[in-house]
Amino acid sequence: MFKRTYTPLVVVSFTFxxxxxxxxxxPVTASDPAVLVIDGTRITIGELDRENPSTLFHARNVYYEAxxxxxxxxxxxxxxxxxxxxxxxxxxxxxxKHAYSNLPKDPSDESLRIYYEGLDTTQPFEAVRGQIIDxxxxxxxxxxxxxxxQSLKSQAKVEMLLEAPRAQISFKDTPVRGIANAPVTIVxxxxxxxxxxxxxxxxxxxxxxxxxxxVDIAYKDVPLPMHSHAQKAAxxxxxxxxxxxxxxxxxxxxxxxxxxxxxxxxxxxKLNLDGAAFDKCLDSGQQAQVVKDSLAEGTGxxxxxxxxxxxxxxxxxxxxxxxxxxxxxxxxLATAATRRAADNASVASx
Length: 350
Description:
Elements: E1 7-8, E2 34-38, E3 41-44, H1 45-51, H2 57-87, H3 91-98, H4 109-117, H5 125-155, E4 176-178, E5 184-190, H6 195-210, E6 215-221, H7 230-242, H8 246-256, H9 261-270, H10 275-284, H11 288-300, E7 305-306, E8 308-311, E9 314-317, H12 322-348
Parallel strand pairs: 5-6
Antiparallel strand pairs: 1-7, 2-3, 4-6, 5-8, 8-9
Helix pairs in contact: 4-5, 7-8, 7-9, 7-11
């Protein structure tokens, strides 16, 4: 059982592009290998990326997540083996001694029956009692193991050197708020009608307030097909943007959650926009293509749902807590500081 923290994106899009490569004038290198030859023209992976930056990002990110899991598993095994060697015991003996020795006794039948009542099953209690006990034991052992592993990691110096893939994102027709040239840029792909996006909005406001001199936030529209008001709401925000009040309108929509066309027009009046100009913009679909282009970009990245985020190009899926945002923003700020120091050192050495 898990709690979904995003609205699933069910749009399926297949895009066929005509690649017009004249052939690379630069020699093929190990860092940009040729992956295709068409009628004698060699096409490199870099050329494919430049033609459509989102083509391979999803695959790279999936592979990156698999690598992270493999590395995390290796770290756990490495630390356990080292600790077992220090104590001259096997890993199993180590875990029994430090992780599992103080596990509580099995619950009473009375407690098990209460647990049973919450299960979606038609089998009698006696038939599933053993399974319930096994599940509780396994859950307790997993939690105890996690606590013990955290204690080992806190004593070790583990530095993850694997770098996340970073997406190239266009900022054409994209509203951005925050300081100019911020070291950290968060791009949010969202839907005004998505309930999870509405929850994420509260967190993003806190992020911007806490990191107001370090972060800027861009908003990309991904109106989902199951949300009948999302497309027009997104267009309305851009119509307000045409009058210089995109973010005020954006915040008002998330606050009021009134997305019928008449409501969208009423919201514009609350901000003292030119009502006639706003209505014409919305009714005529002047901003429809901007929204559709944003949706196509999100679909190209194979986003699973909304909200979805890219922080300096790194992908984050679903609602993040403020503490999770703090962790990743601080990581990006540290990376930016290291990069600046290296650049300054390079300039000084010339």
